[in-house]
Amino acid sequence: MVIELLKAFLFGVVEGITEWLPISSTGHMILLDQFVKLDVSKDFYSMFEVVIQLGAILAVVLIYWSKIWPFHTPQHSAKNATGIWRYVDKDIMIMWVKIFIACLPAGIIGVAFNDTFERLFYNPTCVALALIIFGIAFIWIEDIHKNHQPKITSIAELSYYTVVLIGFFQLIAAVFPGTSRSGATIVGALLLGVSRTVATEFTFFLAIPVMFGAALFKLLKFGLAFTPMELWILAVGMITAFVTSIIAIKFLMQYIKKHTFKAFGWYRIILGILVILYFWIIK
Predict the structure, then answer these.
(1) For residue 80, is it within any domain?
(2) Structural element, H or E, at residue 86
(3) Within a domain: residue 78?
(4) Does the N terminus or the C terminus of the chain have fewer Cβ atoms within 10 A?
């Protein structure tokens, strides 16, 4: 039992770090699963690797609570606010509308064809190619944007047209594992002239409904008939992902204030090559 909980702890650490850094949690989970096998059923593991993301997303909720919770008491309302706006922050509500719109492509297409995408693309070759291609994309985008000032420097400046386009970049990650949900949306946002900080924060906020929805979908598909051991494994994974995510998110937000995403691009390329070497040559 202790060994399995230690494995769950390790999975939680990897999930918490790789979910927010644009380096693909899926790619890392596939590699980790090759060397650290949880002694659980295939169905449980398929559910586990998605549901532990709830721990990661709770870290975003905790860190950014003041930016994402739209309801407040009248004494904290905006000056001269009347009616419903005495209790609701208008800017945050508009932001949630934009988040909902951006989630539609992945929400509709991703859920409808989830099993098909997993069957066709959930394999080491596709993951490795996605890691490499988007790694190159990060390096290329940073090079062409060098010395250019971003056009969009706050979430409030994101137009509905822009968030729809970001949503389609998020769909790419839903289709091709290894792309990285955060990586795809950040690449899309940077291409559209969004600053690194805004692109990253909006990516974090997009993850809230997407990951809650994906976790709920997997839970309902698996059912709630857990054994005590399965509950312990799930709890350890989620709690570890939560704590690790707090550290990873704070690190990333500090890092991008002074650095570009190029280091993550090179890391993705190297990891993609290692995945290909391992599964095509070594294994």
Answers:
(1) no
(2) none
(3) no
(4) C
CA angle 128, 215, 71 (to 5 degrees): 120
Answer yes or no: is 145 within a domain: yes
Residue 82 lies in a domain: no
* d(C-alpha 206, C-alpha 177), whole Å: 17
Residue ranges of alpha helices (H) inside 69-176 are 90-105, 111-112, 114-121, 124-144, 160-175
Q: Name the residue range of residue 187's domain.
A: 2-70+88-282
How many domains is the chain built from? 1
